[in-house]
Amino acid sequence: MTTSISSSLRGALLPLVAALVLAGCASTADLSSGVTTPAQFKEQAVAVAPKAATPVQADGAWWRAFNDSELNALVDRAATANTTVQQAAARLAEARAIARAVDADRSPQVGLGAGAIRGAGLDRGDGSKRAATLITAGATVSYELDLFGRLSGASNAAALDAQSREALLQSARLLVQAEVAQTYLALRALDDERAIVRDTVEAYRGTLKLIESRYRAGDLAELDVARVQTELASNESDALALDRQRAQVEHALAVLTGAVASQFSVSTVAWTTALPTIPAGLPSTVLERRPDVAAAQRTVEAAQARVGVAKTDWFPTFSLTGAGGYASADLGDLLKWSARSWGIGALASLPLFDGGRREAGLKGASAQLDGALASYREQVLVAFREVEDQLAALRLLDEQSVVQARAVASATRATVLSDARYRNGYVSQLDLLDARRSELQNRRQQLQVKSAQYQATVGLIKALGGGWEAPAVVGDAGPRPVIAIARQ
């Protein structure tokens, strides 16, 4: 008899022991992302003349460093009306609702119910086979004991998903802020370029009047008139092309700020926007502030938590249940004290054979973790590339602006000298037209370099996560892993 009981006990405990062994075999293996942060960005190691850095905005409104009231108003408008931000906010609200629903499984479940059933043989105790009616009303309570962390793991994963969505909302806001700033600055650059071309058109019109007057007087040939007319028409065409570009950029700005393009306009004013200076020597740890990197890290942590949840499927589940109420064959007697009924119970379950479902679930969760880690590594690599791109652009554009300023000064001087020599008959009209064309081209190129400096500055601020203040460094600031995830 004792041997039979021992055999039965071993048979009952064998599945639980097997589950514990399988879970133990699937645990604890460190997995590093393989991405390290150097102490300094490569581009900042290039020797450049130091400049006074623009102070950081205390409220995080980095665009206010450009000191442009119209830009401030556009960014503030986009913060509430931009559809991309609204969609990201909706996805965050959805993720929070899902997290709350998943977390609800950890609480006792209480419900009220009532029912009626009619049939034969409902009560075998009285031996009657006559049709009878049973009416019930009462409350039920159930609670699952989270002994192995299945429910808490699922709740933690859902909470991390919500945190990832929150970081993605911040990322969407940053992207929209940067896009509004870059679009607005492109609009201001187009306004200045249009002004240069328009001034050139007016100058050619004045020249044409003078040439036509001299042609009528017989001092010049018709060829001279045709050349000036060609230059005038060419510049008028360029001016119209710039008008078309400005209209398209203005319409794009309308969409970014949530406005109807037909009812949106930005006035043409002088470009007085300040250009912030990003300090040199920023540590690469500033990338920790980037919301897209934070979102990717939360996704990795959520995937890791789901691996743990998948492993708990190998463990048994335990639930406590309770019910209390009334049961009666007569509706009039249902709420009498004598019709009361109650019951309590405990349930335990451990699947023995599921056709490989749990193993497949664990492999699927592990694959999702591997994918999340790869996505995180890619995000970090992209972040470094974006910062290095913009740092290189600013360094080279700064040098280019100096060289281009010399080119404009030389071209302007050449135009003055060519005009004087043309009036004295030392050079032909072609020489004068070439000098004017070269001056216009260099002025437009200078403006485009200036515009590129503004665009690269906004791009760098965006790549740094919306600011350029360095976070506090604790301990060694040398190379270190960006993230290290351990499989549980």
Can you walk through the features of this model?
The chain has helices spanning 2-25, 69-81, 83-104, 150-216, 222-256, 291-312, 357-423, 429-463, and strands at residues 29-32, 36-37, 109-120, 131-145, 317-328, 340-349, 480-481, 484-487. It is elongated and about 130 Å long. The longest helix has 67 residues, at 150-216. The chain contains 8 helices and 8 strands, in the order αββααββαααββααββ. Helix 3 (83-104) packs antiparallel against helix 4 (150-216). Strands 3-4-5-6 form a 4-stranded antiparallel β-sheet, with no helix packed on it. Strands 1-8 form a two-stranded antiparallel sheet. It has a two-stranded antiparallel sheet with strand order 2-7. It is α+β, with helices and mostly antiparallel strands and 488 residues long. The protein folds into 2 domains: 18-106 and 149-314 and 356-472 and 479-487, Outer membrane efflux proteins (OEP); 109-145 and 316-349, Outer membrane efflux proteins (OEP), CATH 2.20.200.
Order of helices and strands: HEEHHEEHHHEEHHEE
Query: What portion of the residues fall into strands of 2 or more residues?
Result: 5-15%
Distance between the termini: 43 Å
As laid out across the biggest beta sheet, the strand order is 3-4-5-6
Number of domains: 2
Helix content: 55-70%
Please name the CATH architecture of the largest domain.
Up-down Bundle
Give the helix tally: 8
Q: What value does the average pLDDT take?
A: 82
CATH level 3 topology of the largest domain: Outer membrane efflux proteins (OEP)
Largest sheet: 4 strands, antiparallel
Q: Can you identify the CATH class of the largest domain?
A: Mainly Alpha
CA-based shape: elongated
Please give the number of β-strands. 8
Low-confidence segments, ≥5 residues, pLDDT <50? 1-6, 8-33, 472-488
Class based on secondary structure composition and strand pairing: alpha+beta
In CATH terms, the superfamily of the largest domain is Outer membrane efflux proteins (OEP)
Q: Nearest-angstrom radius of gyration?
A: 38 Å
